[in-house]
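Section 3.1: Structural characterization of target chains.
Under the original work plan, the team committed to producing a structural model for every single-chain target entering the pipeline before any wet-lab resources were allocated. The record below documents one such target. The sequence was received from the expression subgroup and is listed exactly as submitted; it comprises 146 residues.
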Amino acid sequence: MATPPPADRPVPARLLAGIRLVNGAAGLLTPELLIRRFDPGREPPSAAAVYAFRLFGIRTVLLGLDLLGHGGDRLRADLLEGILIHGSDTVTAATLGVRGQVPPRTAVLTTLVSAVNTALAVTAAVALRTPPRTSAKRDRSRCGRC
């Protein structure tokens, strides 16, 4: 299946891809900085935490690239999976904050980022389900003879 040109890809899908690429690269390349936000009292950061951030960092980068490279049904499936992925992230981040397991500022920030990602995935999926209006369709609707 051909990859749709960027202009044909919904803006929310491109925004979500960018967020995934930035966040994934941060998790992959600078996990220690991110870990300090979640567990500020622990020096050095846990090796398990570094592993987890790198593991999810590369996956997040690949998911971002998928949104830029896939089209049609595959892109729709990627976005539907994104709703589940980011919805789960949102619930997890909020739960950690409510339980006091991460600093309040970190909980709010991670919950907000995940909620925005969820909203972008939903918006992009809906945009792909709705056929774009072309100028020809608009012209026919105005023309009584068309």
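Residues 85 and 118 are 8 Å apart (CA to CA).
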